[in-house]
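[Solved] Which block belongs to which protein?

Original post:
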Amino acid sequence: MTDENLPALLRPLDGELPTEARNLAASLRVLFNGLEISVRRYAARRSRDAGAISRYLNGSRLPPWEFILDLARDVAAYRGESIKEETLQLLRDQHRAAVETQGNPASLLRLTQLQLAEADRKSQQSTLQIEVLSQALQDRQTLLDDVELQLREVRHREAVAELQIARVTEERNELLSHREQLQSEIATLRGELKRASQRADELEAECTALESKLATLEGPEEVEGFTPGVMALGMFEMVGFTRISMRLDEVELLALIERLRRLYSQISTITGARFFHTRNSDVSFVTPTACAGAETALLLSESETTSMLDDLDAEVRIGVCYGQVYATAGIMIGPIVSLAERLATIAPRDAVLADAAFIEQLREESALRIQGETEGRYEARPMWQRPIRGLGVVEPWLLGRPAATQL
């Protein structure tokens, strides 16, 4: 190899990289060094951007799985060998861990797609195994039938030819031993076929669950056409929804998701709220006024669908805030977005927690009754102050309806 063909030196890995991203980048570097070419030359070979490949190898950007698979294949081809399954599994585990560390909706959606592809691959392998075992079982059964026929012929000859009894007896014993061996192999194959069929059913169920999860992750609505501004923002969190989705069958899960969609649509018609998928089973909503936000949150907590989720052991918690909401790259951001998420996390079951700015705005809109007052469509009770990481000390308020107006 000449000096001009030597691979370019890669920059050292950033010391602040997450452990998962560092592990993946280190493995990719080991693979890439095995090609003994420069980044620019490999980019030209694969028709990829050299800058993007450099960022993949430096850990500053998470590469797609297709790039990792192409790199592993190129290294194996250069060495004149096939890709080792343990190498692919290590890369697959490191890539999945790096994706989970990012935690944004797009990464979770991509991770679930990769999980579905892997489950489908295993399901196809299981189907192939069933075909092989079924063919082997059929072959053994044919051999067994032939041995039974030969045994009947031997027994007939044994009765007719007494002089050949010694030879016939020996042949009979061999056939009996052969039959016993075949019967044992058939029993083993039947057990393996049963286990393979059960595994195929489990993998198919996993594919169905992952498809349903993808439908849930794709959410009720993208944050498209969203106009930033001062508004009320709420976070509707369903703790334990993932566990429920794995317990329900496909029909029951799809019916539950459709029921939630109808609930969002009905409440949107009443209050004018806009609902957006946030992550996993969490849903956020925005309204132009605190009154509309309070009504939306309380309708969610009081609905029959929420009661049904309680029966399924899923805890519903809601947090609402009021203030400036920003949006970038299809994602809502801002301090009140983080605060609403934290309030939903610490809210009591089927209850609504609000921040002080929301309560103040609700009071200005003349819809709030504080303890001791007698007017207002909503009632608020201060909770104890508590520190929230990154947001300082906050005093949440428990929001509800006055006793005389509760639904």
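(Second protein starts here: sequence line, then its structure tokens.)
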Amino acid sequence: MVEEIKKYFKNGKFNPPAIKQDIVEVEEKLGIKFPIVLRELYLTFNGFREEIAGAAYLLPLKSDKDGSSVLGMNKFFKEEYKQYYPNIDFSNYLFYGSSCSDELWAINLINESEVIAYNHHMEDVYEIVGRNIFEVYIKDQEYFLEVTKGV
């Protein structure tokens, strides 16, 4: 999948790879194990943005200059979000990126063939948007190109 992502997103801004210890540290702090696909992505590039749409398709593991990170976002959903929306449970999901329309993406830690999109405006629901991360990236890119056609 890594090669397909780099090939497809020629305008992508790819960060240098993460080191295994950073992945292990984030896993320990969140009390989870990364799916193999995310582990592979992070060992190749520790985050990437799609420059044209501005989407943070893969957040860095730890805070970057704008403060967004896998660690920060998932700590927020595990520790603070329940006070706002107590009826939604994200305990089996790992948030890893966002779309060009600011929906957050997460992968199901139990069923890795389920990727969801969520925005706080959705309140107590989320949407299943794909079976794998690459599929979700492609759909989002196609959506962006369609809505900006002729602009």
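Accepted answer:
You had them paired correctly. Confirming on the second one: The helical segments are 2-8, 20-30, 36-44, 70-79, 133-147.
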